[in-house]
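Morning F.,

Quick status update on the modeling queue. The single chain you submitted on Monday has been processed. Sequence for confirmation:
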Amino acid sequence: MLISFSMVTWQSALLGVLLFVITFAISLAVVSFILVKIPPDYFKEDRPNEFWSGRHPAIRLLGIIGKNILGVLLVALGIVMSIPGVPGQGFLTILLGIMLLDFPGRQKLERRIVSQPQVLKNINKLRHRFRKAELVL
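C-alpha cells below.
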C-alpha cells in the first residue's frame, strides 16, 4: 500500500509531531534519570559488579534474566532512535542497554564508550546540573 501526500492531513501531521515530542521527552527523561543515579565509580575498572548477590538463587536468576531482556530491548530501541528523524537519545539508550546486559567484555566496552570525550563531557554536565559527582573512569 502506497501512501500519497494527498492522504496526509494537518491532523495526522500534528499527531506525528506530538508523538515525536512525547517520545523524545520520555527517552530523554529516562536516560537522564539513570545517568544521574548511577554511582560516580560505576565505570571504574576495579568496581565489583555482582547483581543481587545476597538474594536467593532463584530470585537472582529471574532478576538476571529480566535485566538482560530489558537490556536487549534498550539496545534495540537505541538503534532505532539512532536513525535520523527518529526521536530520542539513541547512543545513550544503547549505552544503558549495554549496562544491563551480561556478556564477556561488557565493562571494557562501557568504559570505551564513556571515555569518549564528548560522551563523558555531556554525562558529567548532566550530573553537575543535578549536583552529582562527576564520573570516575
